[in-house]
Fold ABC transporter-like protein.
Amino acid sequence: MALSVKGITKQIRSRKIVDQVSFEVKKGEVFGLLGPNGAGKTTIIRMIVSLMKRTSGEIFINGKSLDKDFKGALNEIGAIVENPEFYPYMTGYQNLVHYKRMSRKPVSEERLWEVAKLVKLEDALKQKVKTYSLGMRQRLGVAQAILHQPSLLILDEPTNGLDPQGIREFRGYLRELAGSGVSVLVSSHLLSEMELMCDRYAIIEKGKLIHIETMAETTTVKQDDRRDILFATDDSESAKQTVEKQLHFPVSIVDDTRILVSAAYKDAAVINATLVGSGCNVYEIHFEKKTLEDRFLELTNHTTGEENQ
Ligand SMILES: Nc1ncnc2c1ncn2[C@@H]1O[C@H](COP(=O)(O)OP(=O)(O)OP(=O)(O)O)[C@@H](O)[C@H]1O
Ligand SMILES: [Mg+2]
């Protein structure tokens, strides 16, 4: 395991801002910590990177205990917790060299360029950091965090302030990193973004971990999942009548050719057969994919606030 968090708690005065949280991150996995503002995500991350003391619980990074082998465990981590700080008047290269010198492990010149290439900054490395866009700074932050080849990269809200293109590219680097065997722990309250980024995730609410599952489990449609199934036919009116009369599923009309039938996934086949059987050509069947947001709402009975982003 790249990371094992075992029952960690942070109590401040009488309040538990993180309460008995346990989870594991596997090798090469992108794992998400999801939850609304104030849920405790940053606090969990600060305890893992030892910027904050735990009240109780244990943390193992690549099998090394933070309590018993502090230096060894920390060597396994690369992190961007607060905004990474750089010297704006130095070039990207000079900044990385600076970090390379401060690194707890020796870092070769070759490794520096390998990392620059991975985050697609090789060409910009000779520019001063003050000329960098936010996205480039973010990438330099990742480069700096992975210079010493950590087994676990930790990122707290890494895409804050990035534009859609920047976020998309960022996902690409994370995937590449994960592909090369680095595990990633990433926090966010942006569900649509996490859906595309993570292999597995935990939902944190009011300091407690309430659920863990894989993104595949979340978004894969199950036989009994009920939603609006779209059918494209020649004529919506006759299609609606056929489905309502013969199968008694509620139908709404989208336009001249498309209807929405409220039914389970497994009913789609019989609806299709019924339509075709009564002379109604079917050109398209679309079953809307379940999103992480749908799942989040199911699990938390909350609104996500995503619409305000
Ligand atoms: N040092 C502290 N002293 C007292 N309360 C704190 C401290 N640090 C965090 N908290 C409280 O703990 C809760 C969790 O905060 P945390 O920053 O971990 O949330 P978060 O999930 O990262 O939220 P966000 O999405 O806004 O970043 C909040 O209610 C916060 O006010
Ligand atoms: Mg936070």
